[in-house]
Amino acid sequence: MERIPILKLGPFLLVSIQVDMHDRLVLTLQDDLTERIVQTRARGVLIDISGLDMVDSFIGRMLGNIAGMARILDAETVVIGMQPSVAITLVELGLSLPGIRTALNIDRGMDLLRASLEERTEDFSAGNQAG
User: How many CB atoms neighbour CB 42 within 10 A?
Assistant: First the structure.
């Protein structure tokens, strides 16, 4: 069975989608990614979709679902490398992808994840000191 590789980079996971996505592959990615978040206790997920020329409504919704599941598992999601045609399609389909932040490239995506991790750590520390 075809799978999308999931790499661990410190407290984050990197998913680089470089093949055309079909429904079964998206569902497999969702399962694999949530399992890896739990196994590694990842605090963030970077999903590189630069290899996708097209996203249909199902794949768009599944990206939203993946971000929602990651959030429940205490991990932020950032999507990087979105092609202009993909952004146009998502807007035309009315998909806003709640819970997903976007960045132009991996450097900016990692910066977003690091800033989010620092913010959550500060919030946690402030909450513990107040109690």
Answer: 25
In order of 3, 15, 27, 29, 38, the CA distances from 22 in angstroms are 11, 16, 9, 11, 25
Question: Given strand 100-103, what is the order of strands in its sheet?
Answer: 6-9, 12-16, 44-48, 76-80, 100-103
Q: Which amino acid is at 47?
A: I
Check if the beta carbon of residue 54 is closer than 8 Å to that of residue 89.
Answer: yes
Q: What are the domain boundaries of the chain?
A: 6-130
Spatial distance between the Cα atoms of 50 and 34, rounded to a whole number of angstroms: 21
Q: What is the pLDDT of residues 4-41, one digit of tens each?
A: 999 999 999 999 999 988 889 999 999 999 999 999 99
- At the top level of CATH, the class of 6-130 is alpha beta
Reported as type and span, the H/E element at residue 2 is none
pTM of the full structure: 0.88
Closest CA to 15 of 27, 24, 23, 3: 3
